[in-house]
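lol ok so funny story. i was supposed to be doing the assay writeup but got distracted and ended up predicting the structure for this chain instead. priorities right. anyway since i did it might as well share w the group, maybe its usefull for someone
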Amino acid sequence: MRYKRFLYLDRMVVAPSFRGCGVGGAFHAAAAGLDWLVGEIDLDPPNPVSLAYHERLGFVDVGQQTLPSGKVVSMRARHVSRPRG
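and the output, tada:
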């Protein structure tokens, strides 16, 4: 699948003491005017914290890929609702 207007999130890291405080969500707010947020999550080796985070925010699996390194990733996408105003 191809998206015309998207923001690709790569390597978002939030310190444990700030998880659950909305820090990651601030990046999503920056996507106003875009149609999609996309990124990938490691499945093998697994990254359960990232998977839970993305699922909680409504990201869905749109495909999986095995990288040349052997790592398996889930490509995830979330449609961005535009504010009304």
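The CA atoms of residues 63 and 77 lie 10 Å apart. The first helix runs from residue 23 to 29.
back to the writeup now i swear
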